[in-house]
Amino acid sequence: MKFMSTFSLREGQTSAAAKRFLTGDATPPAGMTLLGRWHAADLSCGWALFEADDAQPLYANAVKWAEELEIHAVAVVEDQSAGEVLAQKYGS
After folding, report:
1. Domain CATH number, residue 62
2. For a tag site, which of 7, 16, 26, 89 has the least CB within 10 Å?
3. pLDDT above 80 (res 92)
C-alpha cells in the first residue's frame, strides 16, 4: 500500500530538522520504504511517498518527527487501480 505524506516545519524548528535530516535521521523506520521525497523551493512544506503493508510504521515516523514537523499522511491509489474500481461502478 502506498501512502502520500505531507510535512511542514513547525515554527522555530528549521535548524533542528535540518540537522536531523543531514545526519541521516530521516531514514524511514523498518516496515516502510521511501519511494520519493520532494521539498518546496520556499521551505514551506514537502511531500514523501512511502510504501508499507500497514500504517503503523508511518505513525512511528510521525511520532519520531512530531516536535519538528507537522505531518499528514493518506493512503493513495494509483491510476490503474482507480480505473478498475471506476469501471466496475460506471462501466468501461
Report:
1. 3.30.70
2. 89
3. no
